[in-house]
Amino acid sequence: MESGKQLTGTLALAVFTSTLGSLQYGYSLGVINAPQKVIEKYYGQSLGVWSERATVLSGNSTEEPDLSVVERHPAVVMYWSLSVAIFSIGGMLSSFLVGFVGDLRGRVKGMLMVNVLAVAAGLLMGLARMWKPHIMVISGRAVMGFYCGLTSGLVPMYIGEIAPKAYRGALGTLHQLAIVTGILISQVIGLDFVFGNDDMWPLLLGLSGAPAVLQSFMLPLCPESPRYLYIVLGKEQEARKSLHRLKGEYDPTPDLEEMRREKEEADKEPRVSILSLIRSSVYRQQLCVALMMHLSQQLSGINAIFYYSTDIFTRAGVSQPVYATIGVGVINTVFTMVSVALVDKAGRRTLTLIGLGGMCFSAIAMTVGLKLQSEYSWMSYVSMSSIFLFVSFFEIGPGPIPWFIVAELFSQGPRPAAIALAGCCNWTSNFIIGMTFPYIQSLLDSYVFILFAVLLLGFTVFIYLRVPETKGKTFEEIAAVFQKGRKKLAQDPKDATELQQLKTSTDA
Question: Can you tell which superkingdom this protein's organism belongs to (predicted)?
Answer without folding.
Answer: Eukaryota
